[in-house]
Amino acid sequence: KNEVEQSPQNLTAQEGEFITINCSYSVGISALHWLQQHPGGGIVSLFMLSSGKKKHGRLIATINIQEKHSSLHITASHPRDSAVYICAVFYGGSQGNLIFGKGTKLSVKP
Amino acid sequence: DAGVIQSPRHEVTEMGQEVTLRCKPISGHNSLFWYRQTMMRGLELLIYFNNNVPIDDSGMPEDRFSAKMPNASFSTLKIQPSEPRDSAVYFCASSFGTGRGGQYFGPGTRLTVT
What we know:
The complex is a heterodimer of chains A (110) and B (114).
Chain A: E1 4-7, E2 10-14, E3 19-25, E4 31-37, E5 43-49, E6 52-56, E7 59-64, E8 69-74, E9 83-90, E10 98-100, E11 104-109
Parallel strand pairs in A: 2-11
Antiparallel strand pairs in A: 1-3, 3-8, 4-5, 4-9, 6-7, 7-8, 9-10, 9-11
Chain B: E1 5-7, E2 10-13, E3 19-24, E4 31-38, E5 42-50, E6 53-56, E7 65-71, E8 74-79, E9 88-95, E10 104-105, E11 109-113
Parallel strand pairs in B: 2-11
Antiparallel strand pairs in B: 1-3, 3-8, 4-5, 4-9, 5-6, 7-8, 9-10, 9-11
């Protein structure tokens, strides 16, 4: 069975802390997508990666294809980072083969 | 660019009624995706189009659901007849090419079927 598991499910941090959200999957993939869903419901694409590491501002995403694992890091966290972070994997070479994780709810306290 | 536009933003309807959700992708994007999000199941891909052609509709839950993309700038997701378990937020997203550059999501339509 194809699964995408995220950890932790819920995360509370103090402003300024370094945050790591993990995503593990059970099949070979062609790409992995990190999404951010704001408290209001809007969804933003953060990263799409198939190898190595990508960085955008305070966000860093890494992927280890051999270990079937990806991490999303947030440096110097801020209350505006509070959101649900969702990992999704593309497998089988088709955009339709997409499985989502359940999300990690992050709350950053001032 | 206005981003992906969805309408309506909220829809409340009675069981058995037909519901039509609309999406306008970002100009120039040639892939369009319909997703459903519920508390129980999270985000699920329902169907995606490439160059206006449905490529994979394996996520469409039942024959009550249908989607069309008559042209590059418009798509609809129709539920007929609607049922209470269809209550969810429906997102439309678009991308260019293979989507490896990321998908751009619309604001979603919150559907409530009573």
